[in-house]
Design a protein that fits this description.
The structure holds two protein chains of two kinds. By secondary structure, chain A is α/β, with parallel strands linked by helices. Chain A has two domains: 55 residues, Rossmann fold, CATH 3.40.50.720; 183 residues, 3-Layer(aba) Sandwich (Rossmann fold). Chain A has nine helices and nine strands. Chain B is an alpha/beta fold. Classes of the chains: A alpha/beta, B alpha/beta. Chain A: This is Glyoxylate reductase/hydroxypyruvate reductase.
Chain lengths: 257, 271
């Protein structure tokens, strides 16, 4: 559409936008950062807990009658107490995740990204490490980075191979940050204990996708920001971004191209 | 003993004349008749503190899973007939909501510590008020009357132990005092709740939802209405279910037994 002036996206991610082309045509872009931080961070922690304590699996055992007698090691998961949590991408959402995980008895926070953020990291005593070390030392890995050419397929065979057998991997960023075949192999072969994914490639996964068959993989339908309050706020913000763009005025949240 | 079996009654005690110590897993001792055991000269020990963290974690997990519809969402994501994810499929945020903790013991307090990081407003009801420093560390407000807590909370979490005083603590009256948008989370004991009243309250939308790690009995009979309600998550009493904790519980029980048999003071003795 040659008359297109404004694109207003209901997200903080903009990996789905061809920014070069957009910039060339002088089109303005509005997006919705900040307002979805809490809901998404909360969902990341919810997913982490559901995966490490095997919630959907356990709930299913109750319904299906698989719960017969009780045994001490039945349905045991992994606790957060004394654990090391590795955050890939200590941005707004990553920080909000760390804040929520702190009182669960996490002993150490590690993080990685394009560069260290000492002021931000100080709140959690988080240490900036290379991706490889984060994989090796973390009991819980949470991916909250943006999808860029640098992060595309970043969580791959090498990454999962370095992780602990008892570790849990959580992705609430974008499906394409993860090499899904490698993740499947790691889960199926016991290289990592469990995974929680709010995002996949594609969404939804095709019905015969191997990840869907794994008991130790909790998959959610991309609901990071899916609450009544947050989506309403996002919608209003997106509308205001759009209107401001059409009027040639400053947007509440414009993406700098 | 693990998970309140075998049943310790007169018959069992008479058949075990040399019994000196009963070491029970977990912190709950509602399944033990302490007077009876004492009359046979049998000492009792439990594993009270090691279970606190994992149980508090599970309480949070249930609250989050319920509010953000995790179990439902997972089922949708893996279902063969799901073609797309509807844009208007929404949950409710836990962050910033009001949590009412009934029973602010070791476990209840740890839940409060976790909830604070989600910027929740925390109310609590307890036999006794906690110290000011403890309250302010988590921003918890004491509700001397449970009614006040029930009326203001978006999430009501039960972390009391089961005693004659707390049996059916939450019944029809209490459920009706709760908000119609509220969720009941139970990590204590099934009998703390009037289960039939709960079923009715959920069916008639008196409260919004429930998330239960404990029921009565466990497991529930296959045709129980709680198993069919869409707005209920039930987990099979996994509050302390991490390998690490279960191993420590085992070690603690063995330690208590050894001390008892040696005639030494028993660690974690229940008096």
């Amino acid at each position: 559409g040659p008359d297109l002036k404004v694109i207003s996206t209901l997200s903080v991610g903009f990996d789905h936008l061809a920014l070069d082309e957009i910039k060339k045509r002088g089109i303005r872009v509005g997006y919705t950062p900040d307002v979805l931080t809490d809901a998404t961070a909360e969902l990341s922690v919810a997913l982490l807990l559901s995966a490490c304590r095997r919630l959907p699996e356990a709930a299913e055992q109750v319904k299906s009658g698989g719960w017969t007698t009780w045994k001490p090691l039945w349905m045991c998961g992994y606790g957060l107490s004394d654990s090391t949590v590795g955050i890939i991408g200590l941005g707004r959402i990553g920080q909000a995740v760390a804040r929520r995980l702190k009182p669960f008895g996490v002993r150490k926070f590690l993080y990685t990204g394009s560069g260290p953020k000492p002021e931000t990291a100080a709140e959690f005593g988080a240490e900036f490490v290379p991706l490889t070390r984060l994989a090796e030392e973390s009991d819980f890995v949470v991916v909250t980075c943006a999808l860029t050419p640098a992060t595309h397929g970043m969580c791959n065979k090498d990454f999962f191979g370095r992780m602990k057998k008892t570790s849990v991997f959580v992705n609430t960023s974008r499906g394409a940050v993860v090499n899904q075949e490698d993740l499947y192999d790691a889960l199926a072969n016991g290289q990592i204990a469990a995974a929680g994914l709010d995002v996949t490639t594609p969404e939804p996964l095709p019905t015969d996708h191997p990840l869907l068959s794994l008991q130790n993989c909790v998959i959610l339908p991309h609901i990071g920001s899916a609450t009544y309050a947050t989506r309403s706020t996002m919608a209003v913000l997106a509308a205001n971004n759009l209107l401001a763009g059409l009027r040639g005025e400053p947007m509440p949240h414009e993406l700098k191209l | 003993m693990w998970y309140h079996k075998p049943v310790v009654n007169e018959e069992l005690l008479q058949s075990l004349p040399n019994l000196k110590v009963v070491a029970s897993s977990g912190v709950g001792i509602d399944h033990l008749d302490l007077k009876l055991l004492s009359s046979y000269g049998v000492k009792v020990a439990s594993t009270p503190f090691v279970v606190s963290t994992d149980t508090a974690d599970l309480g949070m997990a249930l609250m989050l899973a319920s509010s953000r519809r995790l179990v439902e969402g997972h089922q949708m994501a893996v279902a063969p007939d799901t073609e797309y994810f509807p844009a208007d499929w929404l949950g409710v945020e836990v962050s910033g909501a009001t949590l009412g903790i009934v029973g602010m013991g070791a476990i209840g307090y740890k839940v409060a510590e976790r909830a604070k990081a989600f910027e929740m407003k925390i109310l609590y009801h307890n036999r006794n008020q906690r110290k000011k420093e403890e309250e302010s560390a988590v921003g918890a407000v004491y509700c001397k009357k449970i009614d006040d807590l029930l009326q203001q909370s978006d999430f009501v979490l039960l972390a009391v132990n089961l005693t004659p005083q707390t049996r059916k603590l939450i019944g029809k009256r209490e459920l009706e005092l709760m908000k119609p948008t509220a969720t009941l989370i139970n990590i204590s004991r099934g009998l703390v709740v009037d289960q039939d009243a709960l079923v009715e309250a959920l069916q008639n939308k008196i409260i919004k939802a429930a998330a239960l790690d404990v029921t009565y009995p466990e497991p529930l009979p296959r045709d129980h209405p709680l198993l069919k309600l869409k707005n209920v998550i039930i987990t099979p009493h996994i509050g302390s279910a991490t390998k690490k904790t279960r191993w420590v519980m085992m070690e603690e029980m063995a330690e208590s037994i050894e001390a008892g048999l040696a005639g030494l003071p028993i660690p974690r003795e229940v008096l």
